[in-house]
Amino acid sequence: MARIDLVDLAHSYGGNDAPEESFALKPVTMTWRRGGAYALLGPSGCGKTTLLNLISGIVTSSRGKILFDGVDVTTQTTQTRNIAQVFQFPVIYDTMTVGQNLAFPLKNRGMPRPEIDARVAEIAGLLDLTPYLSRKAQRLTADAKQKISLGRGLVRSDVAAVLFDEPLTVIDPELKWQLRSKLRALHRDLDLTMIYVTHDQTEALTFADTVVVMHDGRVVQSGTPAELFDRPAHTFVGYFIGSPGMNIVPAQVSGREATISGHAIALNRSYDRLPAGARIEVGVRPEFVEIASPASNLLAANIERIDDLGRVRFAHVRVGDTRFSAKVPPGLSVSGNNAGLVFDPSRVHVYADSLLVEGEA
Amino acid sequence: MDKTINQKAWLLVLPVFLVVAFSAILPLMTVVNYSMQDTFGNNQFFWNGVGWFKELLDPSSDLGSRFFASLWRNLFFSAVILLIEVPLGIVVALSMPRQGWSVAACLVIMALPLLIPWNVVGTIWQIFGRPDIGLLGYTLNHIGINYNYVSNEFDAWATVIVMDVWHWTSLVALLCYAGLKSIPDAYYQAAQIDGASRWAVFTAIQLPKMKRVLLIAVLLRFMDSFMIYTEPFVVTGGGPGNSTTFISIELVKIALGQFDLGKAAALSLVYNLIIIIVCWVFYTVMTNAGVERRAAKGAA
User: Fold this and answer.
1) Total-model pTM
2) Chain A residues touching residue B300 (CB < 8 angstroms)
3) Mean per-residue pLDDT for B267-272?
């Protein structure tokens, strides 16, 4: 187990001379705590697998450094880095039994037989694989195969970190929940640093203490699930996390007031020093905008559709040309298309060129 | 529900039936007919029942001894070339590049020997190995190795085997290469993560994944080498003595050299039968392997 530091790490598959805009991973500097449970969250193609492969050493970075506990491992091979990684699709050694599959990483490192057996038995127990230990791995279901892959990732106790690359893609939804909670429990029991790549926000938010959101090759925010929800540092985070995502609308902001479509909305903080010439937007989560009867002091909106999600209803409305999602308060019966929007001032954030602007109290 | 009876269907099958009849069944029946009779000049035929077959399978008779001798030669030849070509093909496939322009170059070079007609291959090696003018034969003799495939049995065998290896290893290599290419990168990455040695990667990943193509390669190479005729015929003509006389060469000697059509027909049928049986065994093994895979998938 180790602390992992990334220093100006960047990678381009097109060689180092390619323009930085085309880099699969743009320069990033960050630290992964030892023993932490991290999720790398982002849409397909945002560079999260590249980052993972850089950490594990499958890919060697074009620029920057990777430190494990302060030791530079940038040019070291996967084997010397002592990393475990689980891939998207199950990787099984066909000719071996389940037990031999689990023992393979230990055997390759010359661990004595009794220790291997003990460790394999322990991991098999944790993953409910004990009844299958002497079966041929090839004959098992995809779920079981992926459990074996997970097991191979977890079987070494001395690894610097265990990396998961969307490991539950092939698993049935119901089993997904079980396996995810299992991984969570394993994280506590085995005390390993885990990094979990996914494009599924639920998966990321339930698995990790710290979620790292990536967008277009950049790390845009890393924080606890609550931080990501309450204070998205980038409009992408607001939009990507939460369902429905954050409302992002162009606005003019001055002082404690934002103007959307000619209507002024109160803000909790004062924004006097906004960068000149920047694209100013206001972001607010649908949970903190409520539909009300039309009134002259409220932002007027046209209701297009209402989604009833069971516990809560969300209305899809239109303000001028922009679309908006807003909560329909319990008990409110909507009649007609016209409505007013009520904002919670403490939850309205201001973004300049997509980045969060800290207001002054 | 009543089945519609449509006799017109027979009409549609008829052309195929006729083609097969003329191309396969009638010639085969002619051979069966010959195998039961003794022929003399002037088209005189005498019924011999299973006499030729009895003689063929009796090693103490002249025909039987020649048959078994050539059969063992054939089996020995197949065994040797399989033992060389399969491991060599795997090694070649493993060392072929995986990407870039060199892949295409490699594939073309590998495919070249496969495209050369059999008797041209024979002629190439016949000349190549000649001690007086052949590059190989002359060089070997020049550096003090007494090599002459016309007079020395071992040299004749070595030439025929090396020629077959030269001609057909590419096939095994190309099949293995296809098998290797189908292994997803994740397997190699996982093996790297698991700290597997090069040898462990080979035995745990590459070999199991190549199993099916290897089976096909072994089948193809066995059948082909069991039926070999042209190349050794051109190079050694079956000699020196009878030392490289394979079944097919023996067959031609009996049928065209001695004009013993009855004996030759009986030998043809037995030869054919051996090939069909081996084919069937391989086919069964291979389809069973397929069923096993499907069953495993079904369970998943």
Assistant:
1) 0.74
2) 140-142, 145
3) 88
